[in-house]
Each structure stands twice: as C-alpha cells, then as structure tokens.
Amino acid sequence: MQRNHKESIYDLHLGQNQANYSALTPLSFLERTAAIYPERTAIVYGDIRRTWKQTYERCRAMASSLIAQAIEPGDTVSILAANIPEHFEAHFSVPMCGAVLNSINTRLDAETIAFILQHAETKLFIVDPEFVEVASRALQMIDKPPRVVNIEDPLFSNAPLIGDMTYDQLIANGDSNFEACAVENEWGAISLNYTSGTTGNPKGVVYHHRGAYLNAVSNVVSWSMSGQPVYLWTLPMFHCNGWCFPWTMALTGGINVCLRQVRVDAIFDAIRNEKVDHFCGAPIVLNMMNSADEAIKSGVDHEVKVMTAGAPPPASVIQGMEAMGFDVTHVYGLTETYGPCVVCEWQDEWGDSNADAQAKLKARQGVKAPMLEDLKVVDPVSLEEVPSDGVTIGEIFIRGNLVMKGYLKNPSTTDDAFEGGWFHSGDLAVRHPDGYVEIKDRSKDVIISGGENISSIEIEDVLYRHPLVSEAAVVAKSDPKWGETPCAFINARDVISAEEIIEFCRANMAHFKVPKTIVFGELPKTSTGKVQKYLLREKTRHL
C-alpha cells in the first residue's frame, strides 16, 4: 500500500551529502579487495597467476589508456572474448573510465555482431584471437567500424591481428595509479547485453550500476559464499555479464579460475587441481558432467557448489549431480534481470525427503532473491494473481532493483515490458502453496492440443528420466485434427526406437500429453546451453 508522504521532522536538514551518501557501484568492490587482500590470488589461467593488487593495477592502467583513445563517458566499448582474464578485467576497466561495457556472445554470426556494433554505436572493439575471423567479417559490414584492440593469448597463438593496438600495449602504456572516474549517478549505465534475438534482431538490455552492485551482493547472500571462494568460469562472461559474478568475485576476494573452453575433462581437472568450490552452468553443462566417464569424474573429494539456470533443469539432472556429491542451487532470471533474481531457497524440512523428492523440489524456480523487491504470478489477461495451488498457470511478473533500465533505443518495447509497473517475463508458471514458483513453459512454447494446454517442460522432464536419453526438447507440431501435438527431439546415448520412447512416456504421463512424433539427433543450442526451440519448430513443418 502506498501512502502520500508529508514533510516531517525527519526531512529537516537531513538531506544527502558527500558524507552520508554515495552512488552504489560494483567498482568499489575491486578497490576494497585490492586494498585489504592485495596479495591474494585473483586470477588463474594456464600459467598465469595474478593477485588482486595486480588485477586492480591492470584495470586502472587500461581505463587510463581507454581515455587516451578518446573514449568518453557514455561511449560503448564492446568485447568479443572467451572466459579469459582480459574479459574479467573489462568488467572494471571499461566502467572505470565512464564507458559502458558491451560483452558480445561468442557464438553469434558476423551479421548479428555487425548489427550489435552498429546499434550500440561501439567506439572501441576488443577482440580475442579465437574470434578474429568472425570479428573481421563483421567489421567489413560496417560503414564506420570502431577501432580494434587485439588480445594476445599464449594459449591461443598464431591468430592474425586485425587492429593497430594490442591489449598488452594499452596496459603497458597506461597509468596503474589512475583514479577511476566517479560514479555520480548509480542509475547510470554500466553495461549493455543483447538478448538472443531468436525472433528478429536482438534487443539491447541496459544495466545500471545500482542493479549490478545489488545483484553481485545478492549472489553472495543467496549462495552463502564465504571465505575465499574458488570460482570456475564455466558460465560465459558475456551472458548477463556472467550473472554479475565478475563483480561478485571482486566483492568476496575469491579466486577466478578462467576456462577458455567448457569441456568436461577441463572442468573436472580444474575442480581437482585448483580446488574449485563454486561454478555456474546451464543444465546442459550439468548433464554433460553427469554423462562423463567415471575415470574423468573420479578424485573430487571436496564440497562443490553448483548454481544452475537457463532452461528449467530436469529433476533427474539435479539428482545426478547430487549423487556425485555436488550441492545444486537452482536459480531463475533473464537477461533483463541481471541474471539470477529468483532462487530455490533450501528448507530444512526438505532434508527428510528422499533424493528423488529433494531433486523435484530443487527443480522449482523458487522465491525472490534477497535483493529483489517483488515477484508474482498473474493471469495474463486479468492481471490478477493466480491462486497458490501449484496448478493454475500465470505469467511471472517481476519488480525491483534487479530489473534493467530498459531496451536501448527501443522505447515502445521498453514500455510494453514495464506495463503496469511490473516487468513482464513471458514465462508461464504456477505458484505452490509454500510460495515457490515453478515454470511450466515460455508463453510461446505451450502446446495447445485439442483445447488442452500441455507443458513442454513437463514432457521433457519425463524424457530425461529414460536412461538412454541424453538431451530432450519438446515443441508443438501442427496437426489437422488436434491443432497441435507434442513433438520430441531427442539426443540418445545409444540406439533406441521411437516406439520405445512413446511407450515410456505413456507409462509416466497422461496419454494426451505423450509426444506423437519422435526425432533423433543433435539439438541446436545457444552458447549458454539453451535449446533453440524456434529452429525445432521450423523442422516440424517438414515432418
């Protein structure tokens, strides 16, 4: 309930001033940690071991060099890079000079990268040697391309240089004592992230310093991160700025173990050798780890915490990770919410349940994260909250500091997303009696068959229980009788027939939900492990 504010004794000569107010910015985390723990290890990458003091000095030097390259406050600096130290540093050096960081998805094609560089009005483009070819093609499509800074990486050599500057040169020529530009307004932009653009050109999601600060803190609280966490970079830094974990790790003073390629052997090697105790990843990464040979998985004898989000994880995937001794926390969010804004908080009484029941509880999206103002599930037509019965489906609405500023240069879409004072997620969910939210589908992924709404996620969860199913995705297929019927795309571990899959489904779900069509093969995915269902829907037109 809102009440009108009237001036009171608490408003008299009690205003903001430099002594009692400063804008929130995650840049302050790096400054603090470098001052308190200067000799702590901050970065591990191959043979590279850098302290927080060294990392801070490098970021300051780069920020000063960016200013020397005529980068002004509000300019966009884009980066196309793997999870390497330079990408981590850019999360601090770019906003330190007042500019806005745009981290680009490394799996995009040249045309989309060119669109992003033009739409963001990029002034300077930092390019990893692994992506020189696609970056070069993108730059050729732009009338006035930005200046290019080449990253040189000893672990990825022999790549041609496409710009007239290298990252190391800028560091060497910069001032390691540079004083970062003051953040006068915490509502100012800190980063720009583009959505996947599966139905057209991607939208530019703008983050502010306040939201980045608060979500970094929210990560620490919701994951109970303490001591000096050792964090493995399996989650792409370009994805919602790595769910804000570059800033979270600066806050905790932990160790960042950088990983260029997300391979299952590299993940387990890092966990064993560097004593990694935290990492994030989409369910596809967890499923890949579950399916690894026992020889690869052996030797992990310490607690490892896993945070997963993206496509809702099947309970069987969570159960598999827990069986290996990994502690899984399920979160939910969108690019528009800085990554995780909802967390499946553990309840002590859940410990009395068996492993299967615990996994199903953990597979729910959960409750609002510590720094989120409000979360509700509403009827998309009436906008009334649905009952907390675990059955009635509505759309997730979100409100608070963990919501984006809006879409860059797209006022109408921004207004639509914020209609009624809430962010409209487009995700359909139920709310259980205990208040926990569980996604049932994206609004565009619901299958309407014979007038019945069928959740593709529910079918996928059953499919994942089959021992020979490695990956599964279900979409609607047009049907002259029923309107739509479920079509299952499956990546199998071994030879299995469509009839066997259908019989398994009939034994584990209502018959009207059973897929009528089964297609075997690799599933198309985004770089963050989400299955590209729009491509699968296209395929159904030819079946």
Automatic annotation (TrEMBL):
<keyword id="KW-0443">Lipid metabolism</keyword>
<dbReference type="GO" id="GO:0006631">
    <property type="term" value="P:fatty acid metabolic process"/>
</dbReference>
<dbReference type="InterPro" id="IPR025110">
    <property type="entry name" value="AMP-bd_C"/>
</dbReference>
<keyword id="KW-0436">Ligase</keyword>
<keyword id="KW-0276">Fatty acid metabolism</keyword>
<dbReference type="Pfam" id="PF13193">
    <property type="entry name" value="AMP-binding_C"/>
</dbReference>
<protein>
    <submittedName>
        <fullName>Acyl-CoA synthetase</fullName>
    </submittedName>
</protein>
<dbReference type="InterPro" id="IPR042099">
    <property type="entry name" value="ANL_N_sf"/>
</dbReference>
<dbReference type="InterPro" id="IPR000873">
    <property type="entry name" value="AMP-dep_synth/lig_dom"/>
</dbReference>
<dbReference type="Pfam" id="PF00501">
    <property type="entry name" value="AMP-binding"/>
</dbReference>
<dbReference type="GO" id="GO:0016874">
    <property type="term" value="F:ligase activity"/>
</dbReference>
<dbReference type="InterPro" id="IPR045851">
    <property type="entry name" value="AMP-bd_C_sf"/>
</dbReference>
<feature type="domain" description="AMP-binding enzyme C-terminal">
    <location>
        <begin position="458"/>
        <end position="530"/>
    </location>
</feature>
<comment type="similarity">
    <text>Belongs to the ATP-dependent AMP-binding enzyme family.</text>
</comment>
<feature type="domain" description="AMP-dependent synthetase/ligase">
    <location>
        <begin position="30"/>
        <end position="408"/>
    </location>
</feature>
